[in-house]
Amino acid sequence: MVTSTTTSPAPLRGQSRFRWRVVDIVVAAVLGVAAGFVFLAWNLGYQLPGSVLEAALPGLQGLVNGVWLFAGVLGGLIIRKPGAAIFTELVAAVVSALAGNQWGSFLTFEAGIVQGLGAELVLLAFLYRRWSLPVAVLAGAGAGLFGAVNDLILWYPGSGAAFATIYLASSVVSGAVLAGGLSWILARALARTGALSRFAAGRESVRV
Q: Please, what is the Cα angle at 129 between 126 and 135, to 5 degrees?
């Protein structure tokens, strides 16, 4: 029988549940680096589906953005500390930038911070206490919204209202599904392997 809860277990006496431990930093960094390699592959892989979607309906290419947003949501769901979403997304962006991409280092770093912030603010709104699927989906949607606004300002200045609306909506949907829903599933899968035994995310599901 598997039992689960969507709230974090009570912290040990004298230990703040918001205090970062060494293991938190290490695991968040590892998650960020691993996600960064996914970003590297998607930096090339997105071009075909993106161009097809754009040709079908300008702005619909926002549906490919969710792959670049999952690092922050996954890091937030696992580490469950303030700043985890931003940190993990930024580490992934740094890996993508240092390996070289078509957007340049500074704008890649900036995008990572903005996208991570979108997820972070949703987790903050729930006071870092709720970790259910709906919250993960909202965090992914938040990352998608912030990322899309950033793109419209930097990459699509002067775009029309129709394009902006479609791009925003498609990015939010992509973030909710790919960054939110799939990250929640991945976090639970990792927890079941025992790899997250030192985290609340790993202790929530136990076999009786």
A: 55
- State the Cα–Cα distance between residues 16 and 170, nearest whole angstrom: 38
Alpha-carbon distance 6 to 202, whole Å? 12
What confidence score (pLDDT) does residue 1 get?
A: 41
Task: Write the DSSP symbol of residue 62.
Answer: G
Please provide the distance, in angstroms rounded to a whole number, between the alpha carbons at the two ends of the chain.
6
The helix or strand, by DSSP H or E, that contains position 133, with its residue range, turns out to be helix 133-154
Q: What is the pTM of this model?
A: 0.89
Look at residue 10 and tell me whether its pLDDT is greater than 60. no
E strand intervals along the chain: 2-3, 206-207
**How many CA atoms are closer than 13 Å to the CA of 146, on its beta-carbon side?**
23
Which of left, alpha, beta for 4 (phi over 0: left; psi -120 to 50: alpha)?
Answer: beta
**pLDDT score at 2:** 41
Q: Residue 127's Cα: distance from chain center in Å?
A: 17
| Rounded CA separation 72/65 (Å) | 13
- Check pLDDT > 70 for residue 205: no
